[in-house]
Amino acid sequence: MSTDTDTRTHTDADTDTDTHTDPATERLRRWRLVLGADSAAGAGGGFAALSGADGAMDRALEALYGGQGDPAAQGSGPREAGLGGSAPRVARWLGDIRTYFPASVVQVMQRDAIDRLGLAALLLEPEMLEAVEADVHLVGTLLSLHKAMPETTKETARTVVRKVVEDLEKRLAARTRATLTGALDRSARISRPRHRDIDWDRTIRANLKNYLPEHRTVVPERLVGYGRAARSVKKDVILCIDQSGSMAASVVYASVFGAVLASMRTLDTRLVVFDTSVVDLTDQLSDPVDVLFGTQLGGGTDINRALAYCQSRITRPAETVVVLISDLYEGGIRDGMLKRVAAMKAAGVQCVTLLALSDEGAPAYDREHAAALAALGAPAFACTPDLFPEVMAAALEKRPLPVPETAARPAATPFP
Q1: Neighbour tally for 22: CB within 10 Å
Q2: What is the C-alpha to C-alpha distance for residues 152 and 124, in angstroms, rounded to an integer?
Q3: CA distance 305 to 204
């Protein structure tokens, strides 16, 4: 179903209706909202005219999705309906959709307006930024535009980005810290643990040879326990993030997670972003907004060069996790990229490849490269923000990653 119909159907489901309306009339009203203005003429007058809130909602939808011709080309030629080039008119439209539609629908309509009607340039105006419903996708658009922003708009843009980042941190930070702290505790084994620190599962397995059949028990000759991360465990994490335009949402989430990881004393976190060049943003990790405005979405991709830089910063391979976040459309040296991953794996580095770090669903990616990395023991898969803490915990503990069934399968021959 098209975006137009999806949005109209979602809108209708969220609209309050008069419980006393005749069922047949209400059914026609719903179909009219779903099908749009063109349906009124095509239904032989079967649809009644919309008024009030219904009329306002329909006009807002028609301004974005109405008109003639190929929807993908709308905004570049004549239209019967639309937002036009007037900034005040767009501001009113943004206010209308926030009034009549839930936030989830508003965000979809904003993205469609930017894509279909070429409204990205209007986001360079402070008045527009104050009117929009901020989300991860809008942040990605702002980051791609921030080099062109006038000074009067930059502070407003930072405010919008900070709001989204703070909301993400509230949702993700506590669970991430709790999950990783537990993983770090479990990753350190000690032989003389206190009672509360005994790992009973590993202790029993280590002492099965001491099983006494007559007593039906195991004599724990050797205890295995958890260490304490604050005292004895420290891991190195390198986040290597592709900042090509298609990775915008992943860059936003990765920057937030990078700041969270950097706040944990038991982790030494490095954040590297790349296109055809490589930039180390580790010194800005205390503020993910600074990290985001240090990125430059768009451009080419040289994964091999980025991995070469990351490899040069590894000092403790057995205690290091490298997370490559990229769609793997390599513009550099393919064999070099794969050989670097193989070398890091051989040295004891835990390598994780995330094709996307977002809630956007199945990403586009280079399947041949993904399968080749999987064959090297670096599974390539898309990861949601909610799954990321579990992925990192598994990598820190050096146990199998929670790889979705849809992850790339190993290639028969990863590289020559």
Answers
A1: 10
A2: 9
A3: 47
